[in-house]
Every structure is written in structure tokens, then in C-alpha cells.
Amino acid sequence: IRYVFLQDIWTIAAHWELTAGVRHDRYSDFGGTTNPRLALVWQSTNRLVTKLMYGQAFVAPSYLQLYSNAPNVAIGNPNLKPERSKTVDLSFTYSASRDLTLGADLYRFAQYDVIGQDASFKYQNVGKMAAHGIELEAKWQVSPTLRLSGYANNRIEDYSPLRSFNVPKQTAYLRGDWAFMPKWNWDVQATRIGPHLLPATAPTPIGAYTIVDTTLRCALARDWEFAASIRNLGKVAAREYVSSGLPDNLPLPGRNFYAEARYRF
Questions:
Q1: pTM of the entire structure?
Q2: What is the pLDDT of residues 89-142, one digit of tens each?
Q3: What distance in Å separates the CA atoms of residue 254 and residue 259, rounded to the nearest whole number?
Q4: Is the distance from CB of 93 to CB of 103 less than 8 angstroms?
């Protein structure tokens, strides 16, 4: 794999800035791909920043997709092209006060040359799909030791047999970070996952659910940091869609615990 990229930033006028870049990747198995990125930034007011962004990207076909030879399971195709995507974003960041920042992002992306399997289980570039939506974000520094943040995403996919059935239409979270003592921090996050839009062949629907995670972290010395986490605190019976072959979908972990020790040197 070889690649080369070039990027530059221009101040094109007062309060206007343009970032432009391009990257070329060359793979020995499927060839090359060139992808540009652009970002136009406007300091609309002292408190409002507006960004218009465009980008292209790709996902290279995997070794399995190129060379697998398992009849009735997966047949590789060395002539595959990479999956490609194009994304457009219009975002706004507003500093409502010194301690409160609000953000909104309108987006649309399209995927082309999506890789899938045909009736003979051979991998092919089978088509395209697109989605659009809005993301909302807020950060509030309530006090020097307490910060609240939130995020919400509403995603709408154009009808396509290639649509992402394992991606919920709505997601959101609310998080609190509290530095209650010097070198100690406690955070709690509640994540809301909306209902999944599943294919007609899916035997069991997946409704909305909320998972709560919490982490206690401390830095007892200059180089050491310790943390303990509880995830899915309420033991919510959460599930994700994988394929119609799993009659009750894929169960996610129940309440689980993590401990971490980190040393910097």
C-alpha cells in the first residue's frame, strides 16, 4: 500500500477560511483511488461559526472478499472495486455564553459500489445507498468541577435493499463529569438507542432502550492513573440486529465491570 496526500489552508477573506486537501492511495491488489476534502469556515459572528464541508472516502475490499474460496459460503472476486462514499455537512457552533456551547450539523452521505454477495455467494459491487439527518450537541460547564454534555442524532435512510439495518434511526446521550476531589473524576452517561428499522424477514423487532455507564477515575501519582467502570448498570436486555439467521437477534452484554491501570513513561 502506498499513499500521498497534500493539504493547505487559505485565509480567503476576513472571517473566511478554506481548507483543501487530496489523498491518493494505491493498493497492489485492486489499484488506486483519489479522494478530496474541502472545508469552508465562516466566522459568522463573534459567537457563531459556520462550516460547509465535503469529503470523499473509500473502504478497500478485504482479503476474504477478494480471494475466499468457500462454495455456498463465500466466493472471492479479485475484480472488486472499493466501496466509496461522499459526504456533505453544514454545521453551526454557537457560544451562547462562556460556559455553554451549542452545535448543529446537517449531513448527507452516499455510498457507492457497496460490496455484497449475489445468489451464488460471490462477492460483487452490488449497488448504492444514501442517508441524511441532523446531529445536535450541547456542552455546559455548570461549575469549575461539573460539566454536562448531550448529543442527539436523527438519521433517515433513502429506501434501498442495502440500507444499514443494524443502525438505529435515533441515538442520543446525556453525560455528566464531576471532578469532586483533586485528581478524582466521576462520570455517568445515559445512552438512548432508538428502534431499529429491520428487513421484512427479521423475525423479532428491536425496540428502544437506554443503557447507563459510569466510570470513577483517579490520578494518584504523576505517572499512574486508575479507573473502574460499570457498564449497562441497569442490566438492560439490549439487542442488535446482525442477520435474519439469528431468530432473537444478537444479545449485548448485561451488567459488566472493567478495571484499568495506566502508566505513562
A1: 0.83
A2: 999 999 999 999 999 999 999 999 999 888 888 999 988 889 999 999 999 999
A3: 17
A4: yes
For residue 117, what are the β-bridge partners? 123
Give whole-number Cα distances, 14 to 41, 44, 52, 54, 104, in Å.
11, 10, 17, 22, 24
Dihedral class, residue 144 (left if φ above 0, else alpha if ψ from -120 to 50, else beta): alpha
Task: List, in order, residues 6 or more apart from 171 with CB less than 8 Å away.
Answer: 151, 152, 153, 191, 192, 193, 194
For 259, counting Cβ atoms within 10 Å of its Cβ (0-12 exposed, 13-18 middle, 19+ buried), the class is exposed
Cell, residue 216: 470513577
Indicate the SS3 state at residue 230.
strand
Q: Which three cell numbers stand for residue 14?
A: 476576513
Instruction: Dump strand ranges (E) for the chain.
Output: 2-13, 16-27, 31-43, 48-59, 69-70, 74-75, 83-95, 100-117, 123-143, 146-157, 170-181, 184-193, 209-218, 224-231, 239-240, 250-251, 256-263
Q: Residue type for 67, please?
A: Y
DSSP 176: E
Around 207, how many Cα atoms within 13 Å sit in the side-chain half-sphere? 3
